[in-house]
Amino acid sequence: xxxxxxxxxxxxxxxxxxxxxxxxxxxxxxxxxxxxxxxxxxxxxxxxxxxxxxxxxxxxxxxxxxxxxxxxxxxxxxxxxxxxxxxxxxxxxxxxxxxxxxxxxxxxxxxxxxxxxxxxxxxxxxxxxxxxxxxxxxxxxxxxxxxxxxxxxxxxxxx
Length: 159
Description:
Elements: H1 3-23, E1 38-40, E2 51-53, E3 58-62, E4 70-74, E5 84-92, E6 95-104, E7 107-113
């Protein structure tokens, strides 16, 4: 095939592809949206890697596994009223504050989620921790990570 003919064929294919793309309907439908999603809101030095879910709840202590779920969820709601998320947005692209609107049964709730990283590092330089509560098996949200001293309800071993 002659080069000139090849260039014409390529130009035709490119223009046909472009016209096909331009002519397509550009509406967004959510047929393939995930059932749940997480937004990472922590800064680079956030050792907890704070995340927010679609309901505006803070998510921490992700367990091991390929389909990781948070072991600690901190959220708000209204007693006796089921609220569902109606919208979610970031305050600003450079400020990790997630604003979630929840609504249901004639009420609307607005939740603003953000995280502040403590100044002290999460591990000490000499390997000892001066806290009455100690994590076991690292920082991955392992079950029963807390070991409070004294008489404590076993339910508090995962908080």
